[in-house]
Amino acid sequence: MEKHSKIYVAGHRGMVGSAIVRALRAQGYENIITRTHAELDLTDQQAVRDFFASERPEYVFLAAAKVGGIEANDRHPADFMYENMMLEMNVINAAWQCGCRKLEFLGSSCIYPRMAPQPMPESCLLTGSLEKTNEAYALAKISGLKYCEYLNRQYGTDFISVMPTNLYGPNDNYHPLHSHVLPALIRRFHEAKEHNLEEVICWGDGSPLREFLYVDDLADLCVFLMNNYSGNETVNAGTGKELTIRELTEIVADVVGYTGRILWDTTKPNGTPRKLLNVDKATSLGWTYRTELRDGIRLAYHDFLNNPYRAER
Protein backbone atom coordinates (compact mmCIF):
# COMPACT_ATOMS: atom_id res chain seq x y z
CA MET A 1 0.00 0.00 0.00
CA GLU A 2 1.15 3.52 -0.75
CA LYS A 3 0.66 6.15 1.95
CA HIS A 4 -1.95 7.87 -0.26
CA SER A 5 -3.77 4.64 -1.21
CA LYS A 6 -7.53 4.64 -0.72
CA ILE A 7 -8.21 2.14 2.05
CA TYR A 8 -11.64 0.96 3.23
CA VAL A 9 -11.89 -0.51 6.73
CA ALA A 10 -15.20 -2.34 7.11
CA GLY A 11 -16.24 -2.53 10.76
CA HIS A 12 -14.15 0.42 11.93
CA ARG A 13 -16.20 0.87 15.11
CA GLY A 14 -15.51 -2.65 16.34
CA MET A 15 -12.54 -3.75 18.39
CA VAL A 16 -10.57 -5.13 15.42
CA GLY A 17 -11.57 -2.49 12.88
CA SER A 18 -10.78 0.40 15.20
CA ALA A 19 -7.38 -1.14 15.96
CA ILE A 20 -6.65 -1.44 12.23
CA VAL A 21 -7.54 2.23 11.74
CA ARG A 22 -5.18 3.14 14.61
CA ALA A 23 -2.39 1.06 13.08
CA LEU A 24 -2.88 2.56 9.62
CA ARG A 25 -2.84 6.11 10.91
CA ALA A 26 0.20 5.44 13.10
CA GLN A 27 2.04 4.23 9.98
CA GLY A 28 1.12 7.29 7.94
CA TYR A 29 -1.88 6.11 5.93
CA GLU A 30 -4.37 8.96 5.79
CA ASN A 31 -6.80 8.16 2.96
CA ILE A 32 -8.97 5.84 5.07
CA ILE A 33 -12.65 5.32 4.23
CA THR A 34 -15.15 4.27 6.88
CA ARG A 35 -18.93 3.93 7.15
CA THR A 36 -21.09 3.32 10.19
CA HIS A 37 -23.81 0.68 10.06
CA ALA A 38 -26.40 3.47 9.83
CA GLU A 39 -24.58 4.85 6.79
CA LEU A 40 -24.02 1.50 5.09
CA ASP A 41 -25.74 -1.79 5.90
CA LEU A 42 -23.27 -4.40 4.69
CA THR A 43 -26.00 -7.05 4.50
CA ASP A 44 -27.70 -4.94 1.79
CA GLN A 45 -26.15 -6.11 -1.46
CA GLN A 46 -27.20 -3.17 -3.61
CA ALA A 47 -26.07 -0.64 -1.02
CA VAL A 48 -22.65 -2.30 -0.85
CA ARG A 49 -22.34 -2.38 -4.64
CA ASP A 50 -23.28 1.29 -4.86
CA PHE A 51 -20.73 2.20 -2.18
CA PHE A 52 -17.89 0.40 -3.97
CA ALA A 53 -18.87 1.82 -7.35
CA SER A 54 -18.84 5.33 -5.89
CA GLU A 55 -15.78 5.19 -3.61
CA ARG A 56 -13.57 2.74 -5.57
CA PRO A 57 -11.31 1.72 -2.66
CA GLU A 58 -7.97 0.22 -3.64
CA TYR A 59 -7.51 -1.86 -0.48
CA VAL A 60 -10.10 -3.39 1.83
CA PHE A 61 -9.80 -4.68 5.40
CA LEU A 62 -12.93 -6.73 6.08
CA ALA A 63 -13.18 -6.61 9.87
CA ALA A 64 -16.96 -6.24 10.09
CA ALA A 65 -18.78 -9.18 11.70
CA LYS A 66 -21.58 -10.15 14.05
CA VAL A 67 -19.72 -11.57 17.03
CA GLY A 68 -20.51 -12.94 20.49
CA GLY A 69 -19.52 -15.43 23.16
CA ILE A 70 -20.54 -19.08 23.67
CA GLU A 71 -24.08 -18.31 24.87
CA ALA A 72 -24.89 -15.82 22.11
CA ASN A 73 -23.55 -18.16 19.41
CA ASP A 74 -25.41 -21.14 20.86
CA ARG A 75 -28.74 -19.33 21.20
CA HIS A 76 -28.77 -17.46 17.89
CA PRO A 77 -26.99 -19.62 15.30
CA ALA A 78 -29.28 -18.62 12.42
CA ASP A 79 -28.59 -14.92 13.04
CA PHE A 80 -24.83 -15.44 13.26
CA MET A 81 -24.75 -17.45 10.05
CA TYR A 82 -27.03 -15.21 8.00
CA GLU A 83 -25.59 -11.82 8.94
CA ASN A 84 -21.97 -12.87 8.63
CA MET A 85 -22.51 -14.72 5.35
CA MET A 86 -24.39 -11.81 3.82
CA LEU A 87 -22.01 -9.02 4.80
CA GLU A 88 -18.81 -10.84 3.90
CA MET A 89 -20.10 -12.12 0.54
CA ASN A 90 -21.41 -8.67 -0.36
CA VAL A 91 -18.13 -6.91 0.47
CA ILE A 92 -15.83 -9.50 -1.10
CA ASN A 93 -17.90 -9.71 -4.27
CA ALA A 94 -18.14 -5.93 -4.62
CA ALA A 95 -14.38 -5.59 -4.08
CA TRP A 96 -13.78 -8.03 -6.92
CA GLN A 97 -16.37 -6.39 -9.17
CA CYS A 98 -14.87 -2.92 -8.77
CA GLY A 99 -11.29 -4.11 -9.23
CA CYS A 100 -9.85 -3.58 -5.74
CA ARG A 101 -6.11 -4.22 -5.71
CA LYS A 102 -6.22 -6.28 -2.52
CA LEU A 103 -8.63 -7.41 0.20
CA GLU A 104 -7.90 -8.88 3.59
CA PHE A 105 -10.57 -11.00 5.25
CA LEU A 106 -10.61 -11.34 9.05
CA GLY A 107 -11.77 -14.71 10.33
CA SER A 108 -11.53 -16.58 13.61
CA SER A 109 -9.68 -19.59 14.98
CA CYS A 110 -13.07 -21.28 15.53
CA ILE A 111 -12.92 -22.29 11.85
CA TYR A 112 -10.65 -25.18 12.78
CA PRO A 113 -11.97 -28.61 13.84
CA ARG A 114 -12.96 -29.07 17.46
CA MET A 115 -10.38 -31.81 17.91
CA ALA A 116 -7.73 -30.34 15.62
CA PRO A 117 -4.07 -31.16 16.22
CA GLN A 118 -2.46 -28.75 18.65
CA PRO A 119 -1.06 -26.24 17.92
CA MET A 120 -3.48 -25.84 14.99
CA PRO A 121 -1.76 -25.32 11.61
CA GLU A 122 -3.52 -23.53 8.77
CA SER A 123 -3.57 -26.83 6.87
CA CYS A 124 -5.99 -28.51 9.32
CA LEU A 125 -8.95 -26.51 7.98
CA LEU A 126 -11.91 -28.77 7.03
CA THR A 127 -10.26 -31.93 8.33
CA GLY A 128 -12.82 -32.57 11.09
CA SER A 129 -16.11 -31.50 12.70
CA LEU A 130 -16.52 -28.06 14.27
CA GLU A 131 -17.30 -27.04 17.84
CA LYS A 132 -21.12 -27.15 17.98
CA THR A 133 -21.56 -24.05 20.16
CA ASN A 134 -20.15 -21.74 17.47
CA GLU A 135 -20.58 -23.89 14.37
CA ALA A 136 -22.78 -21.36 12.56
CA TYR A 137 -20.28 -18.54 12.98
CA ALA A 138 -17.41 -20.81 11.97
CA LEU A 139 -19.22 -21.95 8.81
CA ALA A 140 -19.79 -18.35 7.80
CA LYS A 141 -16.13 -17.50 8.31
CA ILE A 142 -14.98 -20.57 6.40
CA SER A 143 -17.22 -19.51 3.52
CA GLY A 144 -15.66 -16.05 3.42
CA LEU A 145 -12.16 -17.48 3.47
CA LYS A 146 -12.99 -19.95 0.72
CA TYR A 147 -14.69 -17.33 -1.43
CA CYS A 148 -11.49 -15.28 -1.35
CA GLU A 149 -9.53 -18.37 -2.36
CA TYR A 150 -11.92 -19.22 -5.20
CA LEU A 151 -11.80 -15.67 -6.57
CA ASN A 152 -8.01 -15.83 -6.53
CA ARG A 153 -8.05 -19.12 -8.41
CA GLN A 154 -10.73 -18.20 -10.92
CA TYR A 155 -10.13 -14.51 -11.51
CA GLY A 156 -6.57 -13.82 -10.34
CA THR A 157 -7.51 -11.53 -7.47
CA ASP A 158 -5.14 -10.86 -4.56
CA PHE A 159 -7.48 -11.56 -1.65
CA ILE A 160 -5.95 -12.89 1.57
CA SER A 161 -7.24 -13.96 4.97
CA VAL A 162 -5.97 -13.93 8.53
CA MET A 163 -7.33 -16.08 11.36
CA PRO A 164 -6.88 -14.56 14.82
CA THR A 165 -6.99 -16.39 18.10
CA ASN A 166 -9.06 -15.00 20.99
CA LEU A 167 -8.75 -11.21 20.98
CA TYR A 168 -9.05 -8.54 23.65
CA GLY A 169 -8.16 -4.90 24.15
CA PRO A 170 -9.48 -1.36 23.58
CA ASN A 171 -13.06 -1.00 22.35
CA ASP A 172 -14.00 -4.53 23.35
CA ASN A 173 -17.58 -5.63 24.03
CA TYR A 174 -18.25 -6.00 27.76
CA HIS A 175 -21.91 -7.06 27.55
CA PRO A 176 -22.69 -9.68 30.25
CA LEU A 177 -24.26 -12.13 27.75
CA HIS A 178 -22.80 -11.21 24.36
CA SER A 179 -19.12 -10.74 25.16
CA HIS A 180 -16.19 -13.15 24.93
CA VAL A 181 -14.54 -14.72 27.93
CA LEU A 182 -11.82 -12.18 28.77
CA PRO A 183 -13.93 -8.97 28.62
CA ALA A 184 -16.74 -10.82 30.40
CA LEU A 185 -14.35 -11.67 33.23
CA ILE A 186 -13.10 -8.09 33.45
CA ARG A 187 -16.64 -6.82 33.89
CA ARG A 188 -17.67 -9.59 36.29
CA PHE A 189 -14.71 -9.11 38.63
CA HIS A 190 -14.95 -5.32 38.48
CA GLU A 191 -18.62 -5.37 39.46
CA ALA A 192 -17.93 -7.96 42.16
CA LYS A 193 -15.25 -5.67 43.59
CA GLU A 194 -17.56 -2.64 43.43
CA HIS A 195 -20.33 -4.50 45.27
CA ASN A 196 -18.02 -6.27 47.74
CA LEU A 197 -19.22 -9.71 46.64
CA GLU A 198 -17.63 -12.62 48.46
CA GLU A 199 -17.64 -14.91 45.43
CA VAL A 200 -17.80 -14.93 41.64
CA ILE A 201 -19.22 -17.83 39.65
CA CYS A 202 -17.55 -18.67 36.33
CA TRP A 203 -18.75 -21.03 33.61
CA GLY A 204 -17.46 -24.57 33.17
CA ASP A 205 -14.67 -26.10 35.21
CA GLY A 206 -11.82 -23.81 34.17
CA SER A 207 -9.87 -26.55 32.40
CA PRO A 208 -10.03 -25.46 28.72
CA LEU A 209 -6.80 -24.08 27.34
CA ARG A 210 -6.94 -20.78 25.47
CA GLU A 211 -4.62 -18.35 23.70
CA PHE A 212 -5.13 -14.57 23.74
CA LEU A 213 -3.81 -11.87 21.44
CA TYR A 214 -3.92 -8.13 22.16
CA VAL A 215 -5.93 -6.50 19.39
CA ASP A 216 -3.34 -3.85 18.51
CA ASP A 217 -0.85 -6.65 17.88
CA LEU A 218 -3.36 -8.20 15.47
CA ALA A 219 -3.82 -4.85 13.71
CA ASP A 220 -0.07 -4.58 13.27
CA LEU A 221 -0.07 -8.02 11.65
CA CYS A 222 -3.02 -7.11 9.41
CA VAL A 223 -1.19 -4.12 7.94
CA PHE A 224 2.00 -6.18 7.70
CA LEU A 225 0.24 -8.93 5.73
CA MET A 226 -1.45 -6.48 3.39
CA ASN A 227 2.02 -5.27 2.43
CA ASN A 228 3.96 -8.53 2.59
CA TYR A 229 1.77 -11.57 1.90
CA SER A 230 -0.20 -13.02 -0.98
CA GLY A 231 -1.59 -16.55 -1.07
CA ASN A 232 -4.69 -18.72 -0.88
CA GLU A 233 -3.93 -20.23 2.51
CA THR A 234 -4.90 -18.20 5.53
CA VAL A 235 -2.38 -16.92 8.09
CA ASN A 236 -2.85 -17.68 11.79
CA ALA A 237 -2.57 -14.73 14.19
CA GLY A 238 -1.64 -15.56 17.75
CA THR A 239 1.06 -15.67 20.39
CA GLY A 240 1.81 -19.40 20.38
CA LYS A 241 1.20 -19.39 24.17
CA GLU A 242 -1.75 -20.80 26.11
CA LEU A 243 -3.15 -21.00 29.63
CA THR A 244 -6.21 -22.52 31.28
CA ILE A 245 -9.39 -20.50 31.76
CA ARG A 246 -8.85 -20.99 35.49
CA GLU A 247 -5.42 -19.36 35.24
CA LEU A 248 -6.90 -16.57 33.16
CA THR A 249 -9.58 -15.82 35.75
CA GLU A 250 -6.94 -15.58 38.46
CA ILE A 251 -4.90 -13.08 36.41
CA VAL A 252 -7.97 -10.96 35.63
CA ALA A 253 -9.07 -10.98 39.26
CA ASP A 254 -5.60 -9.91 40.35
CA VAL A 255 -5.38 -7.09 37.77
CA VAL A 256 -8.88 -5.84 38.68
CA GLY A 257 -8.15 -6.12 42.40
CA TYR A 258 -10.85 -8.63 43.32
CA THR A 259 -9.92 -10.77 46.34
CA GLY A 260 -13.02 -12.92 46.85
CA ARG A 261 -13.59 -16.60 46.01
CA ILE A 262 -13.88 -17.94 42.47
CA LEU A 263 -16.41 -20.78 42.04
CA TRP A 264 -17.11 -22.87 38.94
CA ASP A 265 -20.53 -23.79 37.52
CA THR A 266 -19.84 -27.14 35.87
CA THR A 267 -23.39 -27.30 34.45
CA LYS A 268 -22.31 -24.66 31.92
CA PRO A 269 -20.39 -25.60 28.75
CA ASN A 270 -16.62 -25.47 28.54
CA GLY A 271 -16.46 -25.14 24.77
CA THR A 272 -13.51 -26.51 22.83
CA PRO A 273 -10.98 -28.25 25.15
CA ARG A 274 -7.94 -26.58 23.60
CA LYS A 275 -7.40 -23.87 21.00
CA LEU A 276 -3.79 -22.99 20.30
CA LEU A 277 -2.72 -21.69 16.92
CA ASN A 278 0.46 -22.69 15.17
CA VAL A 279 1.99 -19.30 14.34
CA ASP A 280 5.07 -20.56 12.48
CA LYS A 281 3.80 -19.10 9.22
CA ALA A 282 3.44 -15.55 10.56
CA THR A 283 6.81 -15.88 12.29
CA SER A 284 8.48 -17.03 9.08
CA LEU A 285 7.07 -13.97 7.31
CA GLY A 286 8.82 -11.77 9.88
CA TRP A 287 6.07 -10.94 12.39
CA THR A 288 5.65 -11.69 16.09
CA TYR A 289 3.38 -10.40 18.85
CA ARG A 290 4.53 -7.72 21.29
CA THR A 291 2.09 -7.49 24.21
CA GLU A 292 2.28 -10.02 27.05
CA LEU A 293 -1.04 -11.13 28.51
CA ARG A 294 -0.91 -9.49 31.95
CA ASP A 295 0.21 -6.18 30.41
CA GLY A 296 -2.56 -6.41 27.83
CA ILE A 297 -5.19 -7.13 30.48
CA ARG A 298 -4.07 -4.03 32.39
CA LEU A 299 -4.54 -1.97 29.22
CA ALA A 300 -7.92 -3.61 28.57
CA TYR A 301 -9.09 -2.91 32.14
CA HIS A 302 -8.05 0.72 31.76
CA ASP A 303 -10.15 0.88 28.59
CA PHE A 304 -13.08 -0.70 30.43
CA LEU A 305 -12.90 1.90 33.18
CA ASN A 306 -12.89 4.69 30.61
CA ASN A 307 -15.67 3.25 28.43
CA PRO A 308 -18.95 4.92 29.44
CA TYR A 309 -20.98 2.48 27.33
CA ARG A 310 -19.52 -0.72 28.72
CA ALA A 311 -22.75 -1.74 30.48
CA GLU A 312 -24.96 -1.28 27.42
CA ARG A 313 -22.86 -3.05 24.78
Rounded radius of gyration (Å): 19 Å
The string of secondary-structure elements, in order, is EHEHEHHEHEEHEEEHEEHEEHH
For the biggest sheet, the summary is: 6 strands, parallel
Helical proportion, percent range: 40-55%
Describe this structure in words.
- It contains 10 helices and 13 strands.
- With 313 residues, it is α/β, with parallel strands linked by helices.
- The chain has a 6-stranded parallel beta sheet, with helices on both faces.
- Helix 8 (245-256) crosses helix 10.
- It is globular, with a radius of gyration of 19 Å.
List keywords for this structure.
3-stranded mixed β-sheet, alpha/beta, 6-stranded parallel β-sheet, 313 residues, 15% strand
Layout of strands and helices, then pairs:
Elements: E1 7-10, H1 15-26, E2 32-33, H2 45-55, E3 59-62, H3 70-75, H4 77-97, E4 102-106, H5 135-155, E5 159-164, E6 166-168, H6 181-194, E7 199-203, E8 209-210, E9 212-214, H7 215-228, E10 235-237, E11 243-244, H8 245-256, E12 261-265, E13 274-275, H9 280-285, H10 293-305
Helix pairs in contact: 1-7, 2-4, 4-5, 6-8, 8-10
Short description:
The strands form 4 sheets. This protein has a 6-stranded parallel β-sheet with strand order 2-1-3-4-5-10, sandwiched between helices. The protein has a 3-stranded mixed β-sheet with strand order 11-8-13. Strands 6-9 form a two-stranded parallel sheet. The model has no long low-confidence stretch (mean pLDDT 93). It is globular, with a radius of gyration of 19 Å.
